[in-house]
Amino acid sequence: MRKITHIAVHCTAGNQKNKAADIVRYHTTPKPKGNGWKTPGYHYIVEADGTIINTVPIEQPSNGVAGHNSHIINVCYIGGVDTTKPGLPPIDNRTPAQKVAMIGILRQLKAKFPEAEIVGHRDFNPKKACPSFDARKEYADI
Prior knowledge:
By secondary structure, the protein is α/β, with parallel strands linked by helices. The chain has one domain: Peptidoglycan recognition protein-like (Lysozyme-like, 3-Layer(aba) Sandwich). Helices cover 21% and strands 15% of the residues. It is built from three helices and five strands; from the N terminus they run E-H-E-E-E-H-E-H. Strands 3-2-4-1-5 form a five-stranded mixed sheet. The chain is globular and about 40 Å long.
């Protein structure tokens, strides 16, 4: 098993009507219509209704945070931007079901990797807003 130092929380920065399959398809579709990645960006994707989809086995790296993927687990919720405004500004628009599901999966992962720190993608790159809230603060008690 990989040595896990962080559990990184992300948002998809897209419409909350998307499904995990849409995100995986975009990540793995060749450019220019997708990212062209061999592996999706997240180990877990939480859909708007709270459904948690495991897209990459945690034993393998995913593509969530460039330069850090070998030692992190990436967990993402669908949403994180205001799709009604130009420029798609960041917004914490997690549904109540997503909030409950996120706490559940993060607790499971923290139990499995007790030394791992729960952080947001933005904690690796301050130029990013992802996940559109302070994950380190929100999940400090997990």
